[in-house]
Task: inverse folding
């Protein structure tokens, strides 16, 4: 792998959960992954991004991985625009507008011609639930049994579809951050967005992750509930009929996310989603 110097990094443009983004040569950005992110996952993101780009989907073109001070960097075509999240922060009164737009972008993605080379989502969910230490065997069995009854689906699934992964450009929105892409079931992906956004309901969420003062946290939690409700309502207004199936995906996607983001203190919220669905199981 090509070794490059830290001095070649331009201005830092962004920060995500796994990486920092810098200006880079040839009108690209460099997604410089944090040290602890496994190489295999980074290569997977690079390959998936290339696969989607080659298939003609509107995602940034990806270059070859480089190494800077022991961290891996993925050069990506620079997308000019602010994230949907930045738009919401600047104009919070437009949040419902943006969340409706998010739903519509998700639906558009699910209706593109499927890409067979993407890994199947079911295997990933199954392996993750089987391997977690956060659930008792009885709960795992119930979840896996419920998963068996749900349809595979054959859509492109992003798996991290949130406002921070949508860049809004002069030519329309571009979805970024494709590490989690699979082929699978749209309702599983809708449930994944719902579960992860439920983070903000967590009383354990460290205050530095809540972009408002502590005393208005109750307002923040109520707003999160309203957004979650609005999000689902808009999805089912456009694609009615899957409400029951969505309820079945919810605890499965929460269980699948149990090992993620430990530093955000959201495990309890996710466990509660699982336990609320199966209150009789210990
Ligand atoms: N191709 C790109 N062009 C311009 N900005 C980008 C690009 N990719 C990422 N960014 C910026 O960097 C932030 C983090 O990138 P992202 O790929 O979402 O990282 P993570 O996987 O860590 O969440 C984004 O929210 C966005 O602001
Ligand atoms: Mg991101």
Result:
């Amino acid at each position: 792998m090509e070794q490059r110097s830290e001095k070649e990094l331009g201005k830092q443009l962004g920060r995500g959960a796994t990486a920092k983004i810098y200006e880079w040569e040839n009108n690209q950005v460099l997604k410089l992954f944090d040290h602890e992110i496994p190489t295999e996952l980074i290569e997977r993101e690079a390959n998936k991004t290339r696969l989607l780009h080659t298939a003609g989907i509107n995602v940034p073109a990806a270059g070859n991985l480089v190494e800077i001070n022991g961290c891996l960097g993925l050069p990506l075509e620079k997308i000019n625009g602010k994230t949907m999240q930045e738009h919401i922060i600047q104009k919070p009164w437009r949040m419902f507008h943006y969340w409706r737009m998010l739903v519509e972008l998700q639906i558009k993605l699910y209706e593109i011609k499927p890409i067979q080379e993407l890994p199947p989502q079911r295997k990933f969910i199954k392996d993750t639930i089987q391997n977690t230490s956060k659930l008792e065997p009885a709960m795992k069995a119930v979840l896996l049994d419920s998963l068996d009854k749900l349809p595979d689906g054959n859509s492109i699934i992003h798996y991290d579809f949130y406002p921070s992964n949508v860049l809004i450009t002069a030519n329309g929105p571009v979805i970024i951050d494709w590490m989690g892409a699979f082929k699978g079931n749209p309702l599983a992906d809708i449930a994944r967005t719902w579960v992860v956004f439920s983070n903000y309901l967590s009383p354990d969420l460290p205050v530095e992750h809540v972009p408002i003062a502590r005393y208005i946290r109750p307002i923040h939690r109520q707003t999160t509930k309203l957004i979650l409700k609005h999000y689902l309502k808009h999805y089912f207004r456009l694609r009615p009929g899957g409400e029951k199936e969505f309820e079945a995906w919810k605890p499965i996607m929460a269980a699948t996310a149990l090992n993620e983001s430990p530093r955000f203190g959201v495990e309890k919220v996710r466990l509660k989603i699982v336990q609320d669905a199966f209150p009789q199981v210990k």
